[in-house]
Amino acid sequence: MPEKSLDKEEEYFARIEFERLRKLQEEREKQIAEKEKERLKELHLMRCPKCGMQLSEIDYQGIKIDKCFHCEGVWLDAGELEALTALKKPALDGFFRIFK
Known about the structure:
Elements: H1 2-44, E1 56-60, E2 63-67, E3 74-75, H2 80-85, H3 89-98
Antiparallel strand pairs: 1-2, 2-3
């Protein structure tokens, strides 16, 4: 009878140790993933998605638009397309003239 009790006790502590190690591993993986995300963000920040060159930020009527002067690409952040379409027709025509 005491031997079964010892087996159960060992199993209990083995499970606790396994869970502790599993949580530590998950935390390490989370930290590595966060570091990788930050590294990629720094690597790609203000870079053209098409050619990889530096983007320049242009302010057009309060809307910040990213432009690549290498490939002539124009890139919009979230909400900027909606802001541009809300402009009146003459202002929108002026926008297109800027990028020709």
